[in-house]
């Protein structure tokens, strides 16, 4: 889980502050010292921590005392605001030319950072915004890279331009832009070669491509799990070729978070997106304020809502609403809603964005949330006849016995599911808007 240990430590510091009632200046000082230690342990660069603590301290002892907040709340508020500022305050979008022109984006990074995967993820995002992207396979040194891009491009329904590995990357980039022009495509994303280390030859090649095709946006892909190395790599790339923004991959596996917190402050370029998993849909826009909220255990309800909106099919949701209105909500619909929940990252994915659920609390919960139970419910539902699924009220003991035997579970499991289903049905009736009436009172179930 991203930022797990930092999140835990900071939440502990604040919990201690809150439990103290009246705070002395010494209490606040001691808490800030712990915040400093937590950031250093999270692998945030020393220079950044020093600057961060200076800003926090100045505000905590200076004029920034707000009435209505006790000192503990004030410290949390200041740390939160400074974390947001550290990560760049505003969300930065990739600057694209108007849709009638071609925007050329060059993806750069070290081997293994996740560049090829991220290139395809980004193309998918731009496609969903109405752009027509072309992926160009300019990594001629790792033959598997071309194939990997082709496979990922196909999954995203996006064309991949390749000239094999016998042409120079500069020629391929030029030809790709021409190809996009002739087909009215408006974004060309160049997947360039990664190396194991930053070397002169690599940098020269990137500079040549950049000049040859007038690259609009150079985006560096770095692996969050490499911590300070990611920070050094960002500084180096920015110095040598000039970058416009960073995509931080593998944040899903980064329990420390040092790179995410240091990159903006050290190289001065914004984090545009973060990679949160291996699937092509696992790329999230980077919001400094939401990230700070997650770190401090204040939840990220906005991302949760957006995820729901992106996952839920509007037509299906309307259909479901109609069924509830007409008392036609059956087990097939229940199964459908369970699957949608799975698409949103399962229960644990949803819970991790809820307030108070950051850090290792999630880890404890993950053990308790039985994702397997969801699979078992699915098996039970699939053992029912279509008639039973559509009219759950006909489920009598003998039918339940048959269903239990059909999927190899105890009858108590079937009873539990039926009860759960009935509760869900009742709950849905009460959700405002679900039944069409204000407060859900007018609709008839
Ligand atoms: P490249 O050498 O930079 O092109 O790296 P690849 O795109 O081949 O990715 C290297 C590995 O990292 C692959 O196994 C990817 O699935 C994995 N990967 C990429 N992005 C993410 C991410 O955000 N999270 C996780 N968990 N894995 C990722």
TrEMBL record:
Major subcellular location class: cytoplasm
Subcellular location: Cytoplasm
Enzyme Commission number(s): 3.6.5.4
Binding residue positions for GTP: 109-116, 191-195, 249-252
Keywords: Cytoplasm, GTP-binding, Hydrolase, Nucleotide-binding, Ribonucleoprotein, RNA-binding, Signal recognition particle
GO-annotated biological processes: SRP-dependent cotranslational protein targeting to membrane
Reaction equation(s) it catalyzes: GTP + H2O = GDP + phosphate + H(+)
Keyword Nucleotide-binding tagged: yes
A cellular component term, taken from the record's GO annotations: signal recognition particle
Domain called SRP54-type proteins GTP-binding: residue spans: 270-283
GO molecular function, one term: GTP binding
Top-rank taxon: Bacteria
Its biological purpose: Involved in targeting and insertion of nascent membrane proteins into the cytoplasmic membrane. Binds to the hydrophobic signal sequence of the ribosome-nascent chain (RNC) as it emerges from the ribosomes. The SRP-RNC complex is then targeted to the cytoplasmic membrane where it interacts with the SRP receptor FtsY.
Domains as described in the record: Composed of three domains: the N-terminal N domain, which is responsible for interactions with the ribosome, the central G domain, which binds GTP, and the C-terminal M domain, which binds the RNA and the signal sequence of the RNC.
HAMAP family per UniProt: SRP54
Family from the record: Belongs to the GTP-binding SRP family. SRP54 subfamily.
Subunit structure comment from the entry: Part of the signal recognition particle protein translocation system, which is composed of SRP and FtsY.
UniProt name for this protein: Signal recognition particle protein
Organism annotation: Marvinbryantia formatexigens DSM 14469
């Amino acid at each position: 889980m991203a930022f797990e240990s930092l999140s835990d430590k900071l939440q502990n510091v604040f919990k201690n502050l809150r439990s103290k009632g009246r705070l002395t200046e010494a209490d606040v000082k001691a808490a800030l010292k712990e915040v400093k230690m937590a950031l250093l342990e999270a692998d945030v660069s020393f220079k950044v921590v020093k600057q961060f603590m200076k800003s926090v301290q100045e505000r905590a002892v200076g004029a920034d005392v707000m009435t209505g907040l006790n000192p503990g709340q004030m410290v949390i508020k200041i740390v939160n605001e400074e974390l947001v500022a550290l990560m760049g305050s505003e969300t930065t979008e990739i600057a694209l030319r108007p849709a009638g022109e071609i925007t050329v984006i060059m993806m750069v990074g070290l081997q293994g950072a996740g560049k090829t995967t991220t290139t395809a993820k980004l193309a998918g995002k731009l496609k969903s915004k109405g752009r027509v992207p072309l992926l160009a396979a300019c990594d001629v040194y790792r033959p598997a890279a071309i194939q990997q891009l082709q496979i990922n491009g196909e999954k995203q329904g996006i064309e991949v331009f390749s000239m094999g590995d016998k042409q120079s990357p500069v020629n391929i980039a030029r030809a790709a832009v021409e190809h996009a022009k002739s087909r009215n495509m408006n974004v060309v994303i160049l997947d360039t070669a990664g190396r194991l280390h930053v070397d002169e030859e690599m940098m020269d090649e990137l500079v040549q491509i950049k000049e040859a095709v007038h690259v609009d946006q150079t985006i560096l892909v770095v692996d969050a799990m490499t911590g300070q190395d990611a920070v050094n790599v960002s500084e180096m790339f920015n110095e040598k070729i000039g970058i416009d923004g960073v995509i931080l991959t593998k944040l899903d596996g980064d329990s420390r978070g040092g790179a995410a917190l240091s990159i903006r402050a050290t190289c001065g370029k914004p984090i545009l997106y973060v990679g949160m998993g291996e699937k092509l849909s696992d790329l999230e826009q980077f919001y400094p304020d939401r990230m700070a909220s997650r770190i401090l255990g204040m939840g990220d309800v906005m991302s949760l809502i957006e995820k729901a909106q992106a996952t839920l099919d509007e037509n299906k949701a309307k259909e479901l609403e109609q069924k509830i209105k007409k008392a036609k909500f059956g087990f097939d619909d229940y199964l459908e809603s369970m699957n949608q929940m799975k698409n949103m990252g399962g229960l644990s994915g949803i819970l991790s964005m809820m307030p108070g659920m950051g850090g290792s609390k999630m880890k404890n919960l993950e053990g308790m949330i039985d994702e397997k139970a969801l699979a078992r419910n699915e098996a039970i539902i699939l053992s029912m006849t279509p008639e039973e699924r559509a009219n759950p009220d006909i489920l009598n003991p003998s039918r339940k016995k048959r269903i239990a035997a059909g999927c190899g579970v105890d009858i108590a499991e079937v009873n539990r599911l039926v009860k759960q289903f009935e509760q869900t049905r009742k709950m849905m009736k009460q959700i405002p808007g679900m039944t069409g009436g204000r407060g859900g009172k007018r609709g008839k179930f």
